[in-house]
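[agent] plan:
  1. take the single chain provided in the ticket
  2. run structure prediction with default settings
  3. attach structure tokens to the ticket
  4. add a short note for the reviewer (M.T.)
[agent] executing step 1
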Amino acid sequence: MKRPAFARAALLAISLPAAAATDDGLSLVPADAASVGVIHVADLRTSPLAARIFSDTDKLTVDGDAAHFLAEAKLNPKEDVDTVVAAGSPKGAGGSAGWGLVVFEGRFDAAALSTAIGGRGGVKKSTPAGDYWLLPDKIPTTSSNHEPGVIAFASSRLVIAGNESSVVAALARRSAGGTAFRSGAGLGRHLSRIDSGASAWALVDVSRLPVGERLKTAHASGTIEGKTVDVTAHADHADAAMALVSSMKNVSLLVFQATAKGDALKLSATGVVSDDETAGLMEDALRGVLAAWRLAAQDKSPETVSVLRKFTVSRDKTTVSIAGTLPGPAIRAMVDKKHAQAD
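[agent] step 2 finished; step 3 output follows
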């Protein structure tokens, strides 16, 4: 009989040899992760951006049940969380299940958190590598499949959340001393591409993402300088945006980085390709997209043009990068606009 994924992970914990448990979030990322990202909350906490970034967290203190939960759990997210590590993989061919994992490093009162979760309908379960809680239905989760969302208060320094099988497996990896991600397993072999001072970063294995036919039409929406942007690009390769989207099928890896610089945010994105010709095509497409954005912004948001002009495109034989800095006033305008729309 085929065992459930979380049962297989629990059996793995029994078979693993004893080792010193780790509270390093990256060391819990498995080699088969299709994406991994890190936010160094502690770095952002000391930036002038912090008040804006954590403003949504402050609202929890006036939300009745949320405020009670935080008080019972003795948790202050913007002070107690230092680092967030997120990893996952989409549902694969042949029916393999997708999974998602989020690890929080910081300072936590595991007993108080457990009491707060249990008092709201959480169900405690145990594995040889540690306990975890099935989250009650009223708490929304981002489980990547039909498994229930769970959370484990692994130690006073570590909290692990995600779908059940990924959390059970993470507990087993922690008990065994962690994975070889930092030493080059899976996406870990690309860690050298990350700047040591980055406040946040992400690595994405594009070849593992469910793209392909969807590249024939691209849709994107969001805000620039507080202005709503909604674009649909169809399969006309003369169009700059579609040319960029089309070239993405030749990209094997994407690297995103953000670094807080005072009240500004330095951003960069790099695509790794197989040859110089593809790199050239992507460079041209990126320059075309930037030019199109500047043209579109001239009438509706003239101040955005100067911001976009500071973004540059560069390449070598196997990589194409776009980088620039969002100044503090631009970030504040974007956040204020978002909050105004939410209110």
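[agent] step 4 note for reviewer: The longest helix spans residues 276-300.
[agent] ticket updated
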